[in-house]
Design a protein that fits this description.
Layout: H1 6-18, E1 33-39, E2 48-54, E3 62-72, H2 74-81, E4 97-105, E5 117-121, E6 130-134, E7 138-140, H3 147-151, H4 154-167, E8 175-178, H5 184-193, E9 200-205, H6 210-213, E10 219-222, H7 227-234, E11 239-244, H8 250-257, E12 258-266, H9 280-289, H10 295-301, E13 304-307, H11 310-315, H12 320-335, E14 343-347, H13 352-360, E15 367-371, H14 382-392, H15 396-406
Parallel strand pairs: 8-9, 8-11, 9-10, 11-12, 12-13, 14-15
Antiparallel strand pairs: 1-2, 3-4, 3-6, 3-15, 4-5, 5-7
Helix pairs in contact: 4-5, 4-12, 14-15
The structure holds NADP nicotinamide-adenine-dinucleotide phosphate (NAP).
């Protein structure tokens, strides 16, 4: 399992020890080059490097974006580990979404002009100073939306929207169960549920997040406990919609909780991530534990089982128009101030390892953003040094408390 508490402290200490001498790749001055995060091979954090790459130029139908902010998703952690189906060849530039300013356009890019503020999906290559992507995946953003918000918007809100409204047909008075409720997709789900009258949201999350999310999630449970009896105490008939990003044994539990005419959607497999590198044991265990579904049973019980992958819909299944419609509806909800991305923290490109470790350690509430213009903040700040001095002389019980107090202060915003 991912590490928590004092284990996080050990991990962080090792990271500080191993931190390369401050040598960030300086902002590119050669107009033919740009800075980018490169994944040199599948594996641990040491496979990530910031380096210079040739400047991309837009092809026909493409828009060139001077990137301001990039979204860091749980999926990027799985890509780094090679924990995905048909992984592409390395080296590669990771990242699937960014925001920024249109710098130039290729032929046949009607609707976009130099200077437009945009957010975009990219089929890899997002974690760079400059990105070129087909205009089908680019959306103009409102004047009052910051670049960080925009980079936290598309993947999470589109995924949440498509699942709730396109697949499960969320309506007034329904109930929804969502896991990782304090994460980026989880909070987008909770916000979208609040746009429909009288929807009850059940969520699971690490205990330290409960206070922060209690206003958006109606009933929040510790992710370490068996949530099935807890949900049944409140709603004996179960729930109308289950959104499962964990997979494994969770699939069976979720189906038990589903009401007749209810919809279960599998959209992730976070349970496969345990250590820093891919574990074949966790991979096999997760798939082995998945409930084997008998269609005849589904028919008798009136249950719907579905799956959702936004990136496959966009990049493999030609779903860009469906996604565009969803983005328009979501931007309208943003304009009406009904939804707003929650940004957990901002990180420089050179801090990508620390940012990934934070999501692995379950430390985030909302979205992690790589801010392309941000300078790296040395991890060993005065606060850190003094905290470390205190830790050295503390008992195990005291250090648990100190680490817990200290960690939130690492937040960058
Ligand atoms: N299908 C799609 O189109 C699609 C699109 C976007 C995201 N997703 C999936 O949605 C899920 C959430 O993605 P996100 O980017 O929004 O991430 P996130 O929820 O912001 O961050 C990860 C959170 O997941 C929880 N978690 C569960 N299992 C974990 C594990 N083994 N290791 C570390 N953390 C774990 C932790 O929260 P707690 O400790 O509080 O539980 C952690 O803070 C992921 O499974 C992702 O692959 C799918």
């Amino acid at each position: 399992m991912a590490k928590e508490g004092t284990e996080i402290a050990e991990e962080t200490e090792q990271m500080i020890d191993q931190k390369e001498p401050d040598n960030p790749v300086s902002a590119a001055v050669d107009p033919k080059e740009m800075r980018a995060v490169v994944l040199t091979g599948f594996g641990g954090l040491n496979k990530l490097k910031v380096t210079k790459k040739p400047m991309p130029e837009p092809q026909r139908g493409e828009v060139k974006i001077r990137v301001k902010a990039c979204g860091l998703n749980f999926l990027d952690l799985m890509v780094r580990q090679g924990n995905i189906d048909n992984p592409p060849k390395t080296p590669l530039v990771p990242g699937f979404e960014c925001s920024g300013i249109v710098e130039s356009v290729g032929e046949n890019t009607k609707g976009f002009e130099i200077g437009d503020r945009v957010m975009a999906f990219v089929n890899y290559n997002a974690w760079a100073e400059v990105v070129c992507t087909p205009l089908d995946f680019v959306y103009k953003i409102p004047d009052d939306m910051t670049f960080s918000e925009a980079a936290a918007f598309s993947m999470n809100f589109v995924t949440a929207y498509m699942m709730l409204f396109e697949v499960a047909n969320l309506r007034e008075g329904m109930s929804v169960l969502v896991h990782s409720a304090g994460g980026a997709v989880g909070l987008a789900v909770a916000q979208l549920c609040s746009t429909v009258p009288n929807v009850t949201v059940f969520g699971t999350a690490s205990p330290f997040k409960h206070e922060a999310i209690k206003h958006s999630v109606t009933h929040v449970f510790d992710r370490n406990i068996d949530y099935v009896p807890e949900v049944k105490k409140i709603s004996p008939d179960g729930v109308d919609i289950v959104l499962d990003c964990l997979c494994g044994e969770n699939t069976g539990k979720s189906l038990t909780l589903l009401k007749p005419m209810g919809t279960y959607i599998l959209y992730g497999s976070s349970n496969m991530v345990t250590g820093e590198t891919k574990s074949f044991f966790s991979f096999a265990k997760s798939w082995w534990q998945v409930e084997k579904v008998n269609p005849i049973k589904l028919y008798e019980e009136n249950k719907v089982i579905a799956g959702f992958s936004l990136l496959n819909l966009l990049f493999k299944q030609g779903g860009c128009n469906q996604v565009k419609t969803a983005v328009q509806k979501l931007l309208s909800l943003y304009d009406q101030k009904k939804i707003k991305p929650v940004v957990d923290s901002l990180w420089a490109l050179e801090e990508v390892k620390e940012a990934m470790q934070r999501i692995h350690d379950r430390g985030n509430i909302g979205k992690l953003i790589l801010d392309v213009e941000k300078s790296p903040t040395p991890l060993v700040s005065d606060v850190f040094t003094s905290t470390w001095e205190v830790l050295k002389g503390a008992t195990e019980e005291e250090s648990d408390k100190i680490v817990f107090l200290f960690l939130p202060s690492q937040k960058k915003i």
